[in-house]
Amino acid sequence: MACARITTGEHMNKSQKAAIWDAVHRERLALAEDLEGLDQTQWDTPSLSEGWSVHDLLAHLIDAAKTTRSGFAWRMAQARFDFDADNEIGVQRERREVSQDTLAEWRRVAHYTATPPAPLSSRLVEAFVHGEDIRRPLGIAADYPIDHVVTALKLQRGTSVKMGGGKEIAQGRRLVATDADLDVGQGPQMRARSIDLLMMVSGRA
What we know:
With 205 residues, this protein is mainly alpha-helical. Helices cover 55% and strands 5% of the residues. It has 10 helices and 3 strands, in the order H-H-H-H-H-H-H-H-H-E-E-E-H. The protein has helices spanning 14-35, 40-43, 54-66, 69-78, 83-94, 99-109, 122-138, 146-157, 167-170, 194-201, and strands at residues 174-177, 183-184, 189-192. The chain has a 3-stranded mixed β-sheet.
């Protein structure tokens, strides 16, 4: 399905914002479908997010889907502004004893439009990168809306690693997408699908 072209800046019109949320909601539901029927060994499989299993990472996604701007500020204060500590607290809060219960909660929050104080396009980064963090170790392939992946890639390329981006990782590299009109940066050329470039800029091998 064709996707609307979207800017990565903060100045988006209502149509652009709606298109991003539509893509995020579709991806959340697609991930839920992919996780249906996993056995416990698969739920316990290490994800590409270091230290977290597939089950842990889904709990993190639930926590992120519920996080509001005001709630984020309160949580960070509670965690003494330690992002990693806050994330671990969120995982423990949302991880159910039974994996299928965690999956049911993921389906329940799939259409939420809450977001922390970050560019709206960061919701695309989260959906695509963490989706692959879960799918790749399980051997699950997925198709992603290319225009939205490019939007996420551009945001990651311009955002510092300290803020969850990959600006420093992308520096000194020319990124060329084989499935989109994207040719950015200078240096040794890296040619790959846009989703693979996004994963690389996000710190995945």
